[in-house]
Amino acid sequence: MFIIVKWKRFQVFAILGLILTFLIGCNTPYPNLKTKEIEFWTIQLQPQFTNYFNRLIADFEADNPGLSVRWVDVPWSEMESKIESAILTETLPDVVNLNSSFAHLLTEPNAWLNLDTILSDSVKNEYLSNLWQASQINGKSFAIPWYCRTNITIYNSELFKQAEVDQPPTNYTELAKVAKQIKERTDKYAFFVSFSPQGGNEVLESFPKMGVKLIDVDGKAAFNTPVGKEVFKYWVDLYREGLLPEEVLTQGIQAGEDLYQAGEIAMVFSGTELIEAISENTPEIGKVSLPTSQITGKSNKNSLVLMNFAISSNTKLPDKALKFALFITNHQNQMAFAQETNVLPSTIKTLENSYFQNIPDDASSQDQARVISASQIFDAEVLLPSVKNLDKLKEIIYQNLQVTILGEKTIEQAIADAASEWNKL
């Protein structure tokens, strides 16, 4: 009898244990579902856009149960070296934000997923063809275009009026003529460019704009040509004729922006965001500042800075990583990001929005700048070559321009030395 009672008690406890286990299991959502993580790197977007990306990631995770996104924002100065290190150690994150300055990293095709093998033409055709091509290496697609920027010219209409200049210049030939007229009639400088290696890319981009190829297919210098010498001569002559401020030899682009806001130069070359900053910093200059198209040359090429997304070839979640990259770059999210950041989108549908197409009657100079910038995107290019030592190329050319300006070398010697120094790399 004792044995029977004890056995029945055991059965009761066993049944209660099974029921308790079942109840606990019912209160645990997705008990068999293991969360998978996408690692995602961007370039210096925190803290300004932290809220935007937190919302974006939350929306994606809500639509994709079982997936999480770990966002890592890397400072600009560290991004290139971190990616190079990750390529060598095969530890690339699933989705990586690249800049056109880092385009040479895509020449490591084994590091990146070839998107041509998994993307249909209909998806590719949602993006501007020139931007998609800018994300290709040797005809293969290794990145998805995200957002971009085309520089504009901002000019002081009051100084133009004083100098009796009717129209802002559109090319380098007109720029030199306007520079001379403004200097003679107002004793002000027309514009500022930097010959400092730490300065901007305006002078370097002037080579392809004026029809000079910087690097050949073998990576050797291609600028030591008669046309290349003409570009050297163009900048040397402008300085020696007193048409450029002395600071161009030592100061970066910030000096040019400061001179413009002080009313000391008549034009500044920058992105659309600067015109708003000018209005806030110096309202009296902002009131007379107007936007126009960027300066180009005989090639009629407009320069472009592009951000895109590449996917690691070692990702364990290729489909999910691609889905996330396409989610960030879809029409709706690009429209929202463009309005928040004052950049240009890469999708055709987004650019067709009136926000980028129409200048209203009561338009501000910022509205005008945005539409002008957007109008340039369709035939714009990343003009600088996809080479690892691009900053070194700029340094070599700029330093040889400096010594020529100061009379320490002839133009012929300077451009030959620059080509020789680059080829030794």
Question: How is this structure best described in words?
Answer:
With 425 residues, the protein is of the alpha/beta class. The chain has 2 domains: 36-147 and 306-368, D-Maltodextrin-Binding Protein, domain 2 (3-Layer(aba) Sandwich), CATH 3.40.190.10; 152-303 and 381-424, Periplasmic binding protein-like II (D-Maltodextrin-Binding Protein, domain 2). Helix content is 47%, strand content 13%. A 6-stranded mixed beta sheet has the order 2-1-3-11-6-12. Strands 8-7-9 form a 3-stranded antiparallel beta sheet. Helix 9 (226-240) packs across helix 18 and helix 18 (390-405) packs antiparallel against helix 19. It is globular, with a radius of gyration of 28 Å. The chain starts with a helix and ends with a helix.
